[in-house]
Structure formats: C-alpha cells, structure tokens
Amino acid sequence: MIDTYVYRLGRALHGPSRHKSDLLTEVRHSLTDTAEGFRAGGMDPAEAERRAVAEFGPVRQLAREYQSELLAGSLRSLAIRMVVVGVVLAAVGDLMWRGAPWTGPEPPAAYLFLSGTLEWLWHGVDLFALGAYLWLGWQARRGRFPVRLARVTGIGLCVALVLGQLVTIAVYTWSVTLWEAALTWPPMLVGGVVLVAVHGWLGRSAYVHLASGVKG
Questions:
Q1: Was domain 72-215 assigned CATH 1.20.120?
Q2: 167-201 pLDDT, tens per residue?
Q3: How many Cβ atoms from other residues are within 10 Å of residue 39's Cβ?
Q4: Pick from 15, 134, 145, 162: most CB atoms within 10 A?
Q5: CA 197 vs CA 58, 64, 82, 101, 188: distances in Å
C-alpha cells in the first residue's frame, strides 16, 4: 500500500527531480513511521499500511499541496540559473572578441544595433531573474506562496529567456557570416560551445518549471 501510494504520488508530481525525490522520501518515511506505530499497537501489517495511507489523505489532494512546493522550487532554480548564465555570457562574450585577428568592412547599422541590444537585453533578464529570486525568498520568510503570481512570473522569465536566446543566436550567426575568419578563431569556437551548453541547461530548467506550473 505504501509503495503504491508513493508511486501514484510521484506520477502526479512534476518539478525538479531532486526536490521531488526529497518530497517522496519524506512521504515514505512518514507513512512507514505511522504504519510501524499501528503495528506496535498489535495491528496486522497490511491493515497498518492501509490505515496509514488512509490517514495521510487522497493522492490528488496531497499532490496539489506538494505541487505548489515544486513550483516554487523550479522557479527559484530557473531564476538563479538565469542570473548565473547572464554573468557567464557577459564574460564569454568579451573573451570571444578580445584580440580578434580579422579585419573587414564596417558592419551594417542593423548588426550594431542588434549586438548593442543584446548586452542590455541580458542585463534586463538578469535583473528580472534576480528580482524574482529575492521575491521568492521574501515570500518564503513570510510563510506565503502566491501560486498564480508565481506562474505569471515564471512565464515572464521564460519569455525573457527565449528572447535573449534568439537574439544571442542571431548575433553569433551574423558575426560568423560577416567575418569568415571568425569560423577558425578558437575563442569564437569555444564560445559557441559554451553558448550551446548554457542555453541547453537553461532550456531544460525552463521546461521543468513550465511543467511544474501546468500541474501546480
């Protein structure tokens, strides 16, 4: 009974794997302790497990409560990752261009505008993500978690992230198109790999958060 209950609860929850695993472990331990207490009182083991599960409540009700916790955890994770990636991208962007050996015609005005926009865009994304992270911490200290507002904040972070990623890809692709030597410049190649890695990392975090929000 306990294994089945925990399994069903796990299927109903969506969110960060580690946080979800911790919640399920906590539930299992609580159910096991309760069942052991009933057995110590002389109850049949199978009946003790059924009683423990019954007292714990329906899976659907518990899943709704725990899903809010997972939503908060996934939003915190996404926000702090976006802040970290923003710092990494700023450093990588500078290193990719420092000492570049190629020369060529002045890039078009549209390119200069887009590349300049990219820096300010990520500054805005970082501030938004940092604000969301601090807001979550403040709500946690107050013992409150407004689910609807958290969902809206999470969607906003995901939209900002996608916009930042699209502009980053556009600037990188346009750069290697304008300067062919950039395709063989080691910092540009390494920077491209780093960009793919960090954006993939962020993309997975955003997906986990959106899944948490849909179920939360």
A1: yes
A2: 888 888 888 888 877 777 788 888 888 888 888 88
A3: 16
A4: 15
A5: 41, 33, 13, 26, 14
